UniProtKB/TrEMBL annotation:
It catalyses: a 5'-end NAD(+)-phospho-ribonucleoside in mRNA + H2O = a 5'-end phospho-adenosine-phospho-ribonucleoside in mRNA + beta-nicotinamide D-ribonucleotide + 2 H(+). One of its GO terms (biological process) is NADP+ catabolic process. This is NAD(+) diphosphatase. PROSITE patterns: NUDIX, NUDIX_BOX. It is an enzyme of class 3 (hydrolase). GO terms for molecular function: metal ion binding; NADH pyrophosphatase activity. Its EC number is 3.6.1.22. Pfam families: NUDIX, NUDIX-like, Zn_ribbon_NUD. It comes from Sphingomonas guangdongensis. Gene3D superfamilies: 3.90.79.20, Nucleoside Triphosphate Pyrophosphohydrolase.
């Protein structure tokens, strides 16, 4: 099993508690209950570099994150207002330093709070919705329809040809950064079909032998990144500049230099918390080939 960013939470989600309003109320009133400290949706850290928590105060609705050694942990649903997909520069830097378990806890809270921001009204009738089940669902006050947090599947893939990997970059990224190609799974597609379509659309390359490698929740605002490796027979590139600024083939040596942070590296790799980094590190050490054996 390959570990990826935003996984490894140290909280027990305690699903049964979400269905018990009395139990949730008791947990919220527990003097030992902890509340995640957020600033405009970004996590705050203590002197120890871990996520900052504070006692639960009268903040209205709470998002129940789970239990740890019997201690309830919450996030303030008030923080949902204005929490979306945007990431501040400070958050980018902080994510590189968060302990894996803390990043997973924050990622869960961030994804759910972002969902609440976007689902204050019912998609069925337009009525106002309110949180239920400890913040893991919303119910329309008009028609009674219940809405649940959604996760959108995204494929992200290492495409290999003759010992080289295909990377691309988007104009919004930091200068010189290249990463694995990625795209949303469309209705009526399998993961394998989505990989083949996205690579062909973005880079003009046809692939085969698509194999699953690992996955990662991505809380900006709420995707599941499905990592794969695929083979190409023809390396000819036809880049769709509406999707990518550039695409290149890189050798294992070039990628290894980038991952090491060598000053003369050809490009900058994706950050450590992104599954793209995990996939490329695995490819450098031949893990994709072993996974498909």
């Amino acid at each position: 099993m390959i570990a990826t960013g935003f996984t490894g939470s140290w909280l027990d989600r305690a699903d049964a508690v979400r269905h018990d309003d009395a139990a949730l109320a008791a947990l919220g009133a527990d003097p030992g209950a902890r509340l995640l400290v957020l600033d405009a949706g970004d996590p705050q850290v203590g002197a120890d570099g871990r996520l900052a928590w504070q006692p639960v105060a009268e903040l209205g609705e709470l998002l129940f994150l789970g239990l740890h050694d019997g201690v309830p942990h919450f996030a303030p649903l008030l923080a949902a207002h204005g929490t979306g997909a945007a990431r501040s520069p400070a958050l980018f830097a902080l994510l590189d330093r968060l302990a894996p378990g803390d990043a997973a806890v924050f990622g869960t809270a961030r994804a759910l709070l972002s969902w609440h921001t976007r689902h204050r009204f019912c998609a069925n009738c337009g009525g106002v919705t309110a949180p239920i089940r400890g913040g893991w669902a919303r119910r329309c006050a008009v028609c009674g329809t219940e809405h649940f947090p959604r996760t959108d599947p995204v494929v992200i893939m290492v495409v290999e040809h003759d010992g080289r990997a295909l990377l691309g970059r988007q104009t919004a990224w930091p200068p010189r950064r290249y990463s694995a190609l990625a795209g949303f799974v469309e209705p009526g597609e399998s993961v394998e079909e989505a990989v083949a379509r996205e690579v062909q659309e973005e880079a003009g390359v046809r692939v085969r032998d698509v194999r699953y490698l690992a996955s990662q929740p991505w809380p900006f605002p709420g995707q599941l990144m499905i990592g794969a490796v695929a083979q190409a027979d023809d390396p000819t590139l036809t880049v769709d500049t509406r999707e990518l600024e550039d695409a290149i083939w890189v050798t294992r040596a070039e990628l290894a230099a980038a991952l090491r942070g060598d000053a003369d590296a050809r490009f900058l790799p994706p950050p450590a918390y992104a599954i793209a980094r995990t996939l490329l590190e695995a490819w450098v050490t031949d893990a994709p080939a072993q996974a498909g054996a």
